[in-house]
């Protein structure tokens, strides 16, 4: 059933783009178009530095590293002109970097959850070495939000500010995903035993949360394609295209992620181990901004907000945005309701770090 819904949605999306061409409307802009250059490679991953706008005054020396979810394409943060987090931060004069996880292949099946966390640490080291700044602001989105929280617990002194963007922390509060992965009926090792988790397998889990969203997207696409609301149409087409552009999840990391976090909730219990050492959330003393979406079914707000009960940071802020796990971040409305507050927080903490450095 879920596969059938996926195929229907894909055909409608392609039909909407074809209709736009026929009636002379511009087809949705290509994602990930903000100019950038690759600075570092590690396996399939690439560390990209966003080219600054020479007409914009620098907001500060301390860089900003964005880490998107590793099961989707990185360009969700640079999806379309009306909802690009990358472009918004660059246009504010920030030095923006992005870790693109790339596409895992069969040779990556043995990458562990620790390997992924350490990849963020090495990306941070490259950013610091290249810029000469002693710290960076770190933003992790979704699964990468969890990995960034883990990184901050290990290297808080190297982080000028941590932004957890819809990253789960207390997995007992993860709602339907936690129930779907209940060990009474779900074995992550059995799933991972066949190799990397295929995009269709991951997508099936997310579609199961709200299968009606596929139908609503179909209706919305049809309506917007025939209307004059081009910006909204572009945003829906871009988001729909990204949502079905998944990448494989490295098998070993997947098994460890589900079993240790969803099934045993080790992170908040203080039993989660990365690179041989327990992760102590109380060691997070850097400034923290937690961003949650009020209609998020993938990371319910309570799961991300729980972090505040475990850390040592004094500087803590919470931002609640309207929408779902992705729509609240990249829809055109986010440009007015969410992006300015993110820019203000990041700019403030970049400048504070510059004063101390």
Could you characterize the architecture of this molecule?
By secondary structure, the chain is α/β, with parallel strands linked by helices. It is built from 15 helices and ten strands. The chain has helices at 2-22, 85-91, 113-131, 143-155, 176-180, 188-192, 199-209, 212-225, 230-243, 251-263, 266-269, 301-305, 327-330, 334-337, 339-356, and strands at 36-42, 45-50, 64-67, 96-100, 136-141, 159-165, 273-274, 277-278, 288-293, 316-321. The strands form two sheets. An eight-stranded mixed beta sheet has the order 1-2-4-3-5-6-9-10, with helices on both faces. It has a two-stranded antiparallel sheet with strand order 7-8. A hairpin with a 2-residue loop joins strand 7 and strand 8 (277-278). Helix 8 (212-225) packs antiparallel against helix 9 (230-243). It starts with a helix and ends with a helix. The model is unreliable at 22-27 (pLDDT under 50).
Work out the helix count: 15
The third-level CATH topology is Rossmann fold
Secondary-structure content class: alpha/beta
Rg, Å, rounded = 20 Å
Query: Which CATH class applies here?
Result: Alpha Beta
The amount of beta strand, in percent, is: 5-15%
CATH superfamily: Alpha/Beta hydrolase fold, catalytic domain
What is the number of E strands?
A: 10
User: Strands of the largest sheet, in order across it?
Assistant: 1-2-4-3-5-6-9-10
Give the CATH architecture: 3-Layer(aba) Sandwich
Distance between the amino and carboxyl termini:
56 Å
Principal-axes shape call:
globular
- The overall pLDDT average reads 85
- Residues in helices, as a percent range: 40-55%
Largest sheet descriptor:
8 strands, mixed
């Amino acid at each position: 059933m879920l596969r059938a819904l996926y195929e229907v949605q894909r055909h409608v999306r392609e039909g909407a783009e074809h209709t736009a061409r026929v009636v002379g409307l511009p087809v949705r802009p290509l994602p990930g178009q903000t100019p950038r250059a690759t600075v570092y490679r590690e396996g399939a991953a690439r560390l990209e530095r966003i080219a600054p706008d020479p007409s914009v005054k620098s907001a500060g020396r301390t860089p900003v590293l964005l880490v998107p979810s590793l099961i989707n394409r990185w360009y969700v943060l640079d999806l379309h002109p009306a909802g690009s987090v990358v472009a918004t931060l660059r246009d504010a004069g920030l030095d923006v970097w992005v870790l693109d996880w790339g596409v895992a292949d069969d040779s990556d099946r043995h990458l562990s959850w620790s390997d992924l966390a350490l990849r963020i640490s090495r990306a941070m080291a490259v950013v610091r070495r290249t810029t000469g700044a002693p710290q960076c602001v770190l933003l992790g989105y979704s699964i990468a939000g969890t990995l960034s929280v883990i990184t901050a617990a290990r290297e808080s002194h190297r982080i000028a500010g941590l932004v957890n963007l819809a990253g789960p922390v207390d997995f007992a509060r993860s709602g339907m995903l936690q129930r779907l992965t209940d060990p009474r009926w779900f074995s992550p090792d059995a799933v991972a035993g066949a190799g990397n988790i295929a995009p269709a397998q991951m997508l099936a889990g997310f579609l199961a949360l709200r299968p009606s969203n596929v139908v609503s997207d179909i209706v919305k696409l049809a309506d917007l394609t025939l209307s004059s609301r081009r910006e909204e149409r572009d945003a829906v087409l871009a988001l729909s295209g990204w949502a079905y552009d998944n990448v494989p999840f490295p098998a070993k990391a997947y098994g460890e992620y589900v079993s240790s976090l969803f099934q045993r909730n080790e992170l908040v219990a203080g039993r989660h181990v990365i690179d041989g050492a327990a992760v102590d959330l109380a060691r997070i003393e850097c400034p923290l901004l937690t961003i949650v979406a009020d209609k998020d079914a993938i990371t319910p707000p309570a799961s991300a907000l729980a972090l505040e009960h475990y850390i040592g940071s004094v500087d803590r802020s919470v931002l609640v945005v309207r929408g779902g796990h992705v729509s609240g971040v990249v829809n055109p409305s986010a440009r007015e309701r969410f992006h300015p507050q993110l820019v203000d927080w990041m700019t403030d903490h970049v400048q504070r770090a510059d004063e101390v450095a």
